[in-house]
Design a protein that fits this description.
The complex is a heterotrimer.
Chain A (H helix, E strand, L loop, with lengths): L2 H8 L3 H11 L3 H27 L14 H12 L3 H10 L9 H21 L9 H4 L6 H21 L3 H10 L4 H8 L6 H34 L11 H28 L7 H32 L2 H11 L4 H19 L7 H28 L15 H22 L7 H9 L1 H15 L1
Helix pairs in contact in A: 3-17, 4-6, 4-12, 4-16, 5-6, 5-11, 6-8, 6-17, 8-11, 9-10, 11-12, 12-13, 12-16, 13-15, 13-16, 14-15, 15-16
Chain B lengths: L3 E6 L8 H9 L7 H5 L8 E7 L6 E7 L8 H5 L5 E3 L5 E3 L9 H5 L6 E2 L8 H4 L14 E2 L5 H13 L12 H5 L5 E5 L6 H5 L5 E2 L11 E4 L4
Parallel strand pairs in B: 1-10
Antiparallel strand pairs in B: 1-8, 2-3, 4-5, 6-7, 9-10
Chain C lengths: L4 H24 L15 E7 L8 E7 L2 E7 L12 H4 L1 H5 L9 E3 L8 E3 L2 H17 L6 E5 L5 H13 L3 E4 L6 H9 L6 E2 L6 E5 L10 H9 L10 E6 L4 H5 L2 E4 L5 H14 L5 H7 E2 L4 E2 L5 E2 L2 H8 L2 H8 L3 H13 L3 E4 L2 H4 L4 H14 L9 E2 L16 H8 L15 H11 L7 E5 L3 H4 L3 H9 L3 E4 L13 E2 L10 E4 L8 E5 L12 H12 L1 H6 L5 H14 L4 E2 L3 H12 L10 H11 L1 E3 L19 E2 L3 H9 L23 E7 L12 H5 L12 E4 L1 H6 L7 E6 L2 E9 L7 E6 L1 E2 L5 E2 L21 E7 L1
Parallel strand pairs in C: 6-7, 6-17, 9-10, 9-15, 10-11, 12-24, 17-18, 18-19, 25-29, 26-28
Antiparallel strand pairs in C: 1-2, 2-3, 4-5, 4-19, 8-16, 13-14, 20-21, 21-23, 22-23, 25-32, 26-29, 27-28, 27-32, 30-31
Helix pairs in contact in C: 4-20, 6-15, 9-12, 9-13, 9-15, 17-19
Classes of the chains: A mainly alpha, B alpha+beta, C alpha/beta.
The complex binds ligand MGD (2 copies), iron/sulfur cluster (5 copies) and molybdenum atom.
């Protein structure tokens, strides 16, 4: 860090000082990690080029295992994207004060991950060169098209929803002059935090956070419908819409927890990501793990009672057959571990929640696997033989590439914007009294 | 209204697979190399499936030659985002290869798993190209294909009929599989035309359709084996 | 106007970017559309011809577009296959356009078998062969020439025979597909001919292991019978398959009966027992036309048991059931069904006769046809006629040739009632004689190094033969060891006649004619040999006075023209009309000109005569007594001489050793329906799904019962070694519930994708039937090991 920058930083108020430091102070470790993730992303890119050149034959896909890693990752990433917006929007709308330090990191996850999610189906196309046909020859009955639309909308609204609350912070950076003045002047777009501007901004954020909720719900509902609108065993189910939304939120929260734990360590944000945040999110995780179990149980029990032969072939393949390992690993990750850890105050610590978060993220990936693959390879008609699917290294490297690409962009983002919303924290401090009054009002009504 | 359909008599079918090979020959279906086949990438618009029950010596076997069912209510076309698969007014479910983006959604939506994907581009040696049927365009890599009820033969029959100022007759339009079947187990024609053999056979007490309960209304009927 | 620095940089950047895009798009996009296929609107033709891929010789109709063969279908005029075709036939287009075909003559340049060749012209190649043959005759050793011919029924067979005889060589070694049935017919009927089975008109077909719907003499004949006349369900033949494995035929038949290996004869006699006990057999027929049924006194004055006593004493259903594993009720039911059907016929072939007790088992099975009187008549066993072709001229045999022929064959005839496996015998004999006894070996349609059950005998034989010439258009194992390759034209490019196999009781003379033009410089093996004959001159040339095979066929067809019966092929109505006319004694000549007759014959695909005169007693028996003999005296005499006096209708169960701990399983080789010939690799369409199992592609497989696989801890779909005392080979294990637990069913003739042959026949133990010398192809003992 240059002297003058250090001096400027030192002259800022304490919140700014801590939260803007990562923007100007980059450790060797950061570069090393960025290099590693960059290299893996590049591997993914090269693999994709190979795949385009030679054809999807380079994957492990086949008939009837038509869909694999890419579709799994698609559902998974779009699920994670519910992290942010949905959570931060819900918390904002419900005026949960403890949200203030976590919304930004969540919203960032959302925007980046939608992008990485949205390219998955394109990666999966046999003819990516014809992707524009989706617009040129749109066929409105196709859930895939609904998906393109809802994901497009979602991406736009999330981007705005990320950007608006960024404005005051961008203005702060611009005014502090610690970094790229022209760039931040451009980004801050003339925002000067006058009371009028602030008021309008808050109105806009308020409206957006309401708008974004149904869009987010629609996104994962429609993804669920992609599967549910077919007649395939264990896909053709009305529960899939809500189940997918719930799962998306679940994996989103888990992803935030993991992100927070990492940010807290590397940027020393213990004062912002407090134990209580982990505790609260841990409670959410607990509730969702129970919900997850409820949905899953309901899904499988209905299938089991129906006892249709076609359905049962897939059912048993998951419970006791070929897919028993991913299935029970999923149950472990999505239910047993989070339930065990989150149901006790003693383990709802930052460490405990992080472990649970990681378990849920992996568990939810496996859930996507358990949805996509077993049905795909188990045709409904018992006369048709059962398929098999093993991803090729091309698919695995593209998957690794997208994961690292996401992490890399997230890392870079922490160098461009403060990962905790400065103005909202400050506002939070300012409104303590108002909140106290509000809380007093609730208690009064009991009196 | 003309509704082209097929009746396959399982009592006559000997599982010889002539229909399968005739279809490959007629429709320029590419073969894949051994390791690809091992992965499950064989393409065969008509596939003779065998279902074995019982141990020696009480074993029995049923054969089901399985083309595309050309459903009247086809779940495959509803899900295609680009209208690359469609049902024509005479009930034939077709593919538009140059438009298909290769998402394989239709393949997953088809409960009969009759859609085949070109994981790689087709390969023929120069000499093998000689036997390609000029009436049928070879597919490129990355697109879905399936049984077309030998649609190109219908086009020819129509042209012929138009030139002679008459309707298409039953014998004018027979797909390759029906034509070759040595036991005449495959009968093809207009299901709605009482003068066609299929119209009568589909009313046979032995007639059934696969997974009829799904409501896709297949236009391929099977006559149950008698024994 | 001078560009600013900024504009300049932009321009540079844009150029670089577009070049880069172009370049990277080449890198990224492999061609998406197959290159120009060179198609133009073309002329389309449908040409009738005959399929030469397997011995069935079906009628085909090729769709030819601009001189390219794009599809093969059945010739609807052909009475045997009536428009249908089997998958092998359809895949013929891939055989024709096989990328590995050899297009011009090759001469070996390196070591034998080292796969180094030089291309030479036909004149030079035929010149070299001609000179060699000339000098053999000049030195008085015409018998040093030998021909190993694979399947070549019809005029190619006659052409070769004529060539060798007039040349002076007794070594015409043919794999003539002896399935042992003609020995049975000779003994019982005095007719040394394989029987025809009139499946189409039969009401009930009881097949003793014959793979009717797979690789039988004519699967299409069986299919047509199974389909019944004109698509209606009335009058369809009922099929019951008796088999040791759950074969495709068993699966398609109306019913099937699982039986222990080697017990076909026992089961047949068990059925005969019920027929006699319940008086279901045709007593009138037996009385009028059969001898040896009742006990009798032979010429030596000795009292002998007749058929009835032998059966009634020894084949009670309980005992038969214990031996065969077929429940008593089933045996009784089979007998009743056999007796009650309008016309029933028991079909059998080499699965019965290629076993240690083969001949006797064959007699046992055929005795059922005799008991029911279903012989020499419609819907039963029929001895058909050969098409009345003009013969080739009598061969001119000069002094050199006479001397050569008189020196006789190297290989002795090994058995009283048959020639066994002539190819193996020849190889063994060459191995036993001094080097260069055989100087020149011609290989026509034969690949003994791969197809012989004794490949080492062939390897040794080839080493002792200085000059080996192969006519194969493919570099198969034996051709790879040749000195000169004179590649034949492929089927669909050449003229050849295609008589239907004897199993089809009505004579059909199909004609295969070129559907497409041969490649420039290609040559028909027959034309090549006619050219060599001309080069040799003298009596050889005089014996083969034809310019080419087309003219040879045309010359022979004059016999048909003159025959005053039969017709060129036609649709079902024409055929039936003609048959009924002949039945009433009418025959109307349709052509007065031979040329017009020939043109129509070629255009329609052949000639047939669907009427057989059943009243002719010679169709039933040509024995001295004029009766069908259930206890043939020559056989009894031979058995007595071998100390097996009472063995007729006894000892019909297989007596070979049982399983051991070392080799606990029994190997049952069989021919898959997709195989077009012994050792030719399957066409791609067929190789992709060669059999019943949807998961098996390209690889040879074996079928094992679930319990057996489990006991041996061998998983479904894994590669295993099939190990016998004499060797081993690799195959994919398929668990199949239709296999008996003690058996391993193994298709033969398949190759691994790398070309390696998986040949269960080479694991066989080399035993044979002492009466016919037919090899025991039915079984040997093996174990399985993980590969
Ligand atoms: N398509 C086609 N047809 C052909 C030929 C061809 O190349 N292609 N070739 C022709 C030739 S050369 C021949 S020799 C014929 C004869 O060839 P096939 O008679 O077809 O020969 P296989 O299949 O070996 O016959 C054995 C059959 O007998 C049954 N079987 C019953 N008992 C036993 C037993 O104890 N042991 C064994 N191993 N099998 C048993 C098996 O199930 C098997 O199906 O086919 C001719 N037909
Ligand atoms: N592995 C294996 N061995 C077998 C059998 C088997 O099925 N598999 N079957 C057994 C039986 S029943 C028999 S009869 C024998 C048969 O065995 P063979 O008589 O040796 O016959 P194939 O093995 O069919 O060999 C025919 C050869 O002819 C060549 N050929 C192909 N097309 C043409 C053509 O158009 N013209 C000419 N001139 N040549 C051509 C091919 O290169 C091929 O190698 O094999 C026995 N051995
Ligand atoms: S061709 Fe006919 S008999 Fe053969 S498998 Fe097909 S439907 Fe069955
Ligand atoms: S069988 Fe499948 S592909 Fe064919 S029309 Fe029906 S749903 Fe579509
Ligand atoms: S694979 Fe092609 S035809 Fe099928 S849904 Fe996708 S675009 Fe439509
Ligand atoms: S109708 Fe035509 S395309 Fe369909 S299976 Fe039959 S031959 Fe093939
Ligand atoms: S049975 Fe033989 S002759 Fe007939 S089509 Fe098949 S391969 Fe050709
Ligand atoms: Mo043979």
């Amino acid at each position: 860090m240059r002297r003058e920058v250090a001096e400027k930083l030192a002259s800022l108020p304490p919140d700014e000082r801590v939260l803007l430091r990562p923007l100007v102070d980059t450790s060797r470790g950061f570069y090393v990690m960025a290099g590693v993730f960059g290299a893996i992303s590049l591997l993914g890119l090269v693999s994709y080029i190979l795949q385009v050149r030679y054809g999807l034959g380079r994957t492990g896909l086949n008939r009837p295992g038509y869909w694999g890693i890419y579709i799994i990752c698609f559902v998974f990433f779009i699920g994670i994207s519910h992290a942010g917006t949905l959570i931060s929007a819900i918390l904002r709308v419900s005026k949960a004060e403890w949200r203030r330090s976590i919304t930004r990191s969540a919203e960032l996850i959302t925007v980046l991950v939608i992008g990485f999610g949205a390219i998955q189906p394109v990666i999966d196309l046999g003819r990516p060169d014809r992707v524009l046909n989706v617009l040129l020859h749109a066929q409105w009955r196709s859930p895939l098209l609904w998906d393109v639309i809802s994901i497009g909308l979602y991406f736009m609204s999330c981007t705005i929803y990320l950007y608006l609350p960024l404005l005051p912070d961008l203005a702060i950076i611009r005014d502090s002059g610690i970094k790229a003045p022209r760039f931040y002047r451009f980004l801050a777009a003339g925002y000067t935090d006058t009371p009028v501007q602030r008021h309008r901004l808050e109105r806009a954020i308020g409206v957006l956070s309401i708008v974004v909720i149904p869009i987010a719900v629609s996104v994962h509902t429609v993804i669920g419908w992609i599967f549910a609108m077919t007649l395939r065993p264990m896909w053709h189910s009305t529960i899939f819409g809500p189940y997918f939304v719930m799962g998306a939120i679940y994996s989103g929260i888990a992803a935030i927890l993991v992100a927070m734990a990492v940010l807290r360590r590397v940027y020393h944000l213990e004062n912002y990501f407090k134990v209580v945040h982990f505790d609260y999110l841990g409670r959410l995780l607990l509730i969702l793990s129970l919900l997850w179990f409820y949905f899953t149980f309901a899904e499988y029990l209905t299938a089991f009672y129906g006892g249709e032969p076609g359905e049962m072939r897939t059912f048993w393949a998951k419970l006791t057959g070929t897919f028993a390992i991913p299935f029970w690993a999923m149950v472990l990750g999505c239910f047993v571990i989070p339930l065990a850890l989150m149901s006790r105050q003693a383990t709802r610590t930052p460490v405990g929640t992080t472990i649970a978060g990681i378990a849920v993220v992996i568990g939810m990936w496996l859930e996507r696997y358990n949805i996509v693959v077993p049905t795909s390879v188990n045709p409904r008609w018992e006369v048709e033989s059962i398929g098999h699917y093993l991803p090729s290294w091309i698919e695995l490297s593209i998957m690794a590439g997208t994961f690292s690409g996401f992490i890399l962009l997230y890392m870079i983002a922490t160098k461009i914007v403060p990962i905790v919303s400065i103005w909202e924290i400050k506002e939070g401090r300012a409104v303590v009294q108002e909140v106290a009054d509000r809380v007093a009002k609730y208690s009064e009504s009991y009196a | 209204m003309t509704r082209w359909g097929m009746v396959i008599d399982l009592d006559r079918c000997t599982g010889c697979a002539a229909c399968e090979v005739a279809c490959k020959s007629e429709n320029n279906i590419a073969t894949v190399p051994p390791h690809q086949a091992e992965m499950g990438r064989v393409m065969s618009w008509m596939r003779v499936l065998a279902h074995t029950v019982g141990d020696f010596p009480d074993t029995h076997l049923e054969f089901y030659p399985r083309p595309c069912m050309h459903c009247d209510n086809p779940p495959c076309i509803k899900v295609c985002p680009v209208r690359a698969t469609y049902i024509d007014p005479e009930g034939i479910v077709g593919q538009i290869y140059p438009r298909c983006i290769g998402c394989r959604y239709c393949a997953n939506a088809c409960p009969f798993t009759v859609k085949y994907f070109n994981w790689y581009g087709p390969e023929w040696s120069d000499s093998e190209r000689q036997h390609l049927n000029p009436d049928v365009s070879p597919r490129t890599k990355g697109v879905i294909e399936k049984c077309s009820f030998c649609h190109h033969r219908l086009q020819r029959a129509r042209e012929q009929a138009r030139a002679e100022n008459r309707d298409v007759r039953e014998e004018d339009y027979q797909p390759a599989c029906a034509e070759i079947c040595p036991t005449r187990a495959i009968v093809f024609g207009d299901l709605d035309n009482p003068t066609h053999h299929v119209a009568e056979l589909k009313e046979d007490p032995r007639a059934m359709r696969i997974m009829e309960d799904l409501g896709t209304q297949p236009k391929v009927y099977y006559l149950r084996a008698r024994r | 106007m001078r560009p600013t620095r900024r504009e300049f940089l932009w321009a540079m950047g844009a150029t670089a970017a577009s070049v880069g895009l172009r370049w990277s798009s080449d890198l990224v996009w492999a061609p998406q559309v197959p290159d120009d296929l060179g198609w133009a609107p073309g002329t389309e033709q449908f040409v009738n011809s005959a399929c030469l891929i397997c011995p069935a010789r079906c009628g085909i109709r090729g769709r030819v577009v601009d001189d390219r063969l794009v599809r093969l279908g059945g010739n609807p005029f052909h009475p045997m296959n009536a428009g249908g075709l089997c998958p092998r036939g359809i895949a013929g287009v891939q055989m024709l356009y096989h990328p590995d075909r050899i297009a011009s003559p090759l001469r070996r340049v390196g070591e034998r078998g080292a796969d180094s060749w030089e291309e030479i012209g036909w004149d030079e190649a035929l010149g070299q062969l001609g000179e060699r043959l000339q000098s053999l005759r000049a030195t008085g050793r015409p018998e040093a020439l030998a021909l190993m011919a694979g399947y070549c029924a019809g005029s190619m067979h006659d052409l070769w025979r004529q060539f060798l005889r007039s040349y002076g060589s007794p070594h015409y070694v043919a794999e003539d597909y002896d399935d042992g049935t003609s020995a049975v017919m000779e003994l019982m009927h005095g007719i040394a001919r394989r029987p025809g089975f009139d499946l189409e008109r039969a009401g009930f077909v009881l097949s003793f292991g014959s793979p009717l719907f797979e690789s039988w003499w004519s699967p299409l004949q069986a299919f047509a019978a199974f389909a019944g006349p004109d698509g209606s369900d009335d009058g369809r033949t009922r099929f019951v398959q008796i088999d040791t494995r759950f074969s495709r035929t068993a699966a398609h038949a109306n019913d099937w009966v699982g039986v222990r290996p080697g017990t076909f004869g026992v089961l047949a006699l068990g059925i005969a027992y019920v027929l006699i006990r319940d008086e279901l057999y045709d007593a009138g027929f037996v009385e009028r036309h059969v001898s040896g049924f009742e006990d009798y006194t032979d010429r030596e004055g000795e009292r002998r048991q007749g058929y009835r006593s032998l059966v009634m004493r020894n084949y009670r259903t309980e005992e038969v059931s214990a031996l065969t594993g077929v429940p008593v009720a089933r045996i009784t039911a089979l007998a009743r069904a056999f007796a009650q059907a309008e016309h029933s016929v028991a079909v059998f072939g080499h699965e019965v006769t290629h076993a240690p007790s083969g001949l006797l088992s064959g007699l046992a099975v055929h005795s059922l046809n005799v008991l029911m009187g279903n012989v020499g008549r419609e819907g039963g066993v029929l001895f058909g006629n050969d098409p009345p072709l003009d013969p080739l001229p009598d061969p001119r045999i000069d002094a050199v040739a006479r001397a050569g022929l008189e020196r006789g064959s190297l290989a002795r005839t090994p058995a009283p009632f048959g020639g066994g496996d002539p190819a193996s015998r020849f190889a063994a004999a060459v191995g036993d004689s001094p080097s260069e006894t055989i100087d020149t070996l011609l290989l026509y349609y034969a690949n003994p190094l791969a197809s012989s059950p004794r490949p080492d005998a062939w390897r040794e034989a080839l080493e002792r033969i200085p000059f080996v010439v192969s006519f194969s258009p493919f570099l198969d194992e034996t051709t790879a060891h040749a000195d000169l390759i004179l590649p034949d034209l492929l089927a669909f490019e050449r003229w050849q006649d295609a008589p239907t196999p004897v199993s089809y009781p009505y004579p059909v003379w199909g004609v295969a004619r070129p559907l497409v033009a041969p490649p420039p410089g290609g040559k028909h093996a027959g034309d090549a040999m006619l050219a060599v004959a001309r080069q040799l001159g003298g009596s050889v040339a005089a014996s083969l006075p034809y310019d080419n095979v087309e003219l040879l066929l045309k010359a022979r067809a004059r016999g048909l023209f003159r025959a005053r019966r039969g017709m060129t092929l036609g649709d079902a109505f024409e055929l039936e009309h003609h048959r009924q006319m002949e039945e009433r004694g009418w025959w109307l000549p349709e052509h007065t000109e031979f040329e017009a007759f020939w043109d129509e014959l070629v255009q329609r695909g052949g000639w047939t005569d669907l009427f057989l005169d059943e009243t002719d007693p010679a169709r039933l028996a040509r024995t001295p007594s004029g009766r069908v003999d259930l206890t043939p005296a020559p056989l009894l005499a031979t058995l007595a001489a071998a100390g097996r006096g009472g063995a007729l209708y006894m000892d019909v169960a297989e007596t070979s050793a049982a399983t051991t701990d070392e080799f606990p399983l029994r190997l049952l080789p069989y021919r898959v329906s997709t195989l077009s010939s012994g050792t030719v690799a399957l066409e791609r369409w067929l190789a992709e799904t060669p059999g019943l199992f949807p998961e098996v592609h390209w690889d040879p497989w074996i079928e094992v019962a679930p319990a057996t696989a489990e006991a041996q801890k061998l998983g479904d779909d894994t590669m295993v070694w099939v190990v016998a005392a004499s060797g081993r080979y690799r195959a994919r294990l398929k668990v199949f519930p239709g296999t008996a637990p003690e058996n391993v069913c193994a298709p033969y003739g398949l190759r691994h994708p790398d070309g390696e042959l998986a040949n269960p026949l080479q694991l066989l133990d080399g035993s044979s039937d002492a009466l016919t010398a037919l090899p025991n192809w039915s079984t040997t003992f093996v174990r399985l090991e993980p590969a």
